[in-house]
Specification:
The structure holds two protein chains of two kinds.
Chain A (H helix, E strand, L loop, with lengths): L2 H15 L6 H14 L4 H16 L12 E2 L10 E12 L6 E9 L2 E8 L12 E12 L2 E6 L4 E4 L11 E10 L4 E6 L19 E12 L4 E6 L1 H8 L3 H11 L3 H11 L3 E8 L3 E9 L4 H10 L1
Parallel strand pairs in A: 1-2, 4-6, 11-13
Antiparallel strand pairs in A: 2-3, 2-5, 3-4, 5-6, 5-7, 8-10, 8-12, 9-10, 10-11, 12-13
Helix pairs in contact in A: 1-2, 2-3
Chain B lengths: L13 E2 L3 H4 L4 E5 L2 E6 L5 E2 L1 E13 L7 E7 L2 E7 L4 H9 L4 E13 L4 E12 L2 H24 L3 H10 L3 H28 L5 H17 L5 H7 L3 H19 L14
Parallel strand pairs in B: 1-5
Antiparallel strand pairs in B: 2-3, 3-4, 5-6, 5-8, 6-7, 8-9
Helix pairs in contact in B: 3-5, 5-6
The chains are: A alpha+beta, B alpha+beta.
Chain lengths: ~300, ~270
């Protein structure tokens, strides 16, 4: 295939992806004229032909889907880029906003990233565990983390590939060496579930809130560290302090931070065995327990070795 | 470091190191973008440690200074350190602890270079009473990590390992023996506690072992710490510390920088 044919194909495919049939011969002739006769640079010739066709078909630039480069999750580092991804739907979350059709996590072998399908995008629903080509999605940064947004110009195609996720589950033995701020008995915004700081939601300002219990901390095994979040269930399993108990502690002491002190006393400096999945920043803990080690056996192994 | 992908600030790993080794460290590694590191004699850099040992005593350096000297013992020796108001969490919990008591400590390392000796001290960020099982496992874990480092030293090849050979010329057999001795001490205590528990089921073995531990630590104290006087001599240790702490405080804040994101969903609530 000659260069002109290649470019012709590209133009035809571009319009076809957006649902428009164009006359291949017409495109070919126009490109040939511009490039061979008039010696117009290729990219200018392409732009000219595309513009002509858009005008002819009355298609706006937004409607015309430019196929974006195929990337891996780990490559996504800057907001505002148009990319395509082959990824597996890891998890779907409940969306509280009417503007959002679906929200959750997708991943490939290089990482996991949050995705949002806008209601306006008018796309078919994706399902957990299935793999899709997410073509022409836009990268975005939200709260310091990258995500991808699916809009009207994106295309979601189920694909017949089983995409591997990064080493699915990790098992770690390590010590909890830090508990970070916004742990303990916290308040969350009723509208968006975000944690309130001094009673104020970063998005909704002063809103109605509800109580929750969690621990954000750092597990360190002497070689690596992992930022973890323990939810109410994890915390209750470990300490016997659930949300209700936490509220009682807060009430008795007339101080919500009393819960955090108590959790620090019970959890910091101990060893844990935990399993979880790697998120972008946090290890998403599925199971955690205090380490029960056979010190005698391990000690004898050391002495024998 | 998976957790830190794309982030410029890396949290410092908390190394597992016995007192006898840490107290031999004298060499600082300074490089532009990282907090000051101490080179351990077994060839890794170290800025933070995780220790589980017995808090032997706490002593205010001057009345009402809120600056406390602490000594924490493991089976191989004693860690010395200071807790001041720049570590409010550690200070608060320290004041509630009646030594002797088994504590878990997360601490930054400081080197004081005096005229004749260099002294290693620790700066606890966290100090919290823990159960004896935690201490037992710490000894095992620290033994494993130290033996691994010793093996890497024997193999050679990496830059820090070479540097450690140059600076310390460590007698690795001696190191290995110290580590194993620590494990042996632990297993002996363990056996003793177990048989005692069997003998007098209802009574608490803990106190006995703590007392013993203290006695043992005091004994090892006889080896004495050459740097002590030197350290006392550093008149304005507090003000030196203060300056350094501001810097570190900033870094820590950065490390802990919070970007709230709704994670409830991920956590499957």
């Amino acid at each position: 295939m000659g260069r002109i044919e290649e470019l012709t194909e590209e133009v035809v495919r571009l319009f076809k992806n957006s649902g428009y049939e164009v006359d291949r011969r017409d495109v070919y002739n126009r490109l040939k004229l511009l490039i061979e006769e008039f010696k117009v640079p290729e990219d200018e010739a392409m732009r000219t032909v595309k513009n002509y066709l858009m005008k002819e078909l009355d298609v706006s630039r937004e409607q015309l889907i430019m196929e974006s480069p195929l990337v891996k999750v780990a490559d996504i580092k800057a907001p505002g880029q148009w990319v395509s991804l082959k990824a597996k739907v890891v998890q779907l979350w409940d969306s509280s906003s009417p503007n959002v059709s679906q929200v959750g996590l997708i991943g490939d072998e290089t990482g996991i990233i949050k995705f949002v399908i806008w209601a306006k995008a008018n796309k078919p629903q994706v399902e957990e565990g299935k793999c899709y080509l997410f073509a022409n999605v836009v990268t975005d940064s939200f709260g310091g983390r990258m995500q991808v947004n699916v809009n009207r110009n994106s295309r979601i195609e189920e694909i017949d590939e089983d995409i591997q996720l990064p080493p699915k589950e990790l098992e770690i033995v390590g010590a909890l060496i830090a508990i970070q701020q916004n742990s303990g008995l916290i308040k969350r915004c009723k509208l968006c579930n975000r944690v309130l700081t001094k009673g104020v939601c970063p998005i909704h300002g002063q809103t109605e809130s509800y109580d929750d219990l969690r621990v954000k901390g750092v597990i360190d095994d002497g070689e690596n560290y992992y930022e973890v979040i323990l939810n109410e269930e994890n915390v209750r399993d470990l300490t016997g302090i659930g949300l209700e108990e936490a509220k009682e502690i807060a009430m008795e002491n007339l101080d919500r931070t009393a819960v955090l002190s108590e959790l620090k006393n019970r959890l910091l400096g101990r060893y844990y065995r935990l399993r979880g999945m790697r998120g972008q920043r946090y290890l998403l803990v599925s199971e955690i327990e205090f380490l029960k080690a056979d010190v005698r056996k391990e000690g004898e192994e050391i002495l024998g070795g | 470091m998976i957790a830190m992908d794309g982030r410029s600030f890396k949290r410092e790993i908390a190394r597992r190191v016995f007192a006898f080794e840490l107290n031999k460290a004298t060499h600082k590694i300074e490089s532009g973008d990282r907090a000051v590191q101490v080179l351990l004699p077994t060839g890794v850099s170290c800025n933070r440690v995780f220790i589980v040992g017995v808090l032997l005593d706490r002593e205010e350096t001057r009345p009402d200074s809120d600056f406390w000297k602490v000594r924490i013992s493991d089976p191989t020796g004693v860690f010395r350190g200071f807790v001041g108001r720049f570590q409010p969490d550690a200070l608060e919990s320290l004041l509630k602890i009646e030594p002797p008591e088994i504590v878990a400590v997360v601490a930054k390392i400081r080197l004081f270079e005096g005229d004749t000796t260099t002294v290693v001290t620790i700066r606890p960020e966290v100090i919290i009473p823990v159960e004896r099982e935690v201490r037992d496992y710490w000894v095992i874990e620290t033994a494993k990590h130290t033996l691994e480092r010793i093996n890497r030293m024997r193999k050679g090849g990496n830059e820090l390992v070479e540097l450690a050979w140059q600076v310390y010329e460590p007698d690795l057999d001696y190191y290995e023996e110290k580590v194993k001795e620590a494990v042996r001490t632990l297993l002996d205590q363990h056996a003793m506690v177990e048989s005692e528990t069997e003998a007098r089921e209802s009574e608490e073995p803990e106190e006995v072992s703590e007392e013993e531990e203290k006695a043992k630590a005091e004994e090892s104290e006889v080896e004495s710490w050459e740097g002590e006087e030197e350290l006392e001599g550093v008149e304005d240790i507090e003000s030196v510390e203060r300056e350094e702490d501001w810097e570190l405080e900033d870094i820590d804040e950065f490390e802990f920088e919070e970007e709230e994101w709704d994670l409830r969903d991920i956590l499957g609530e």
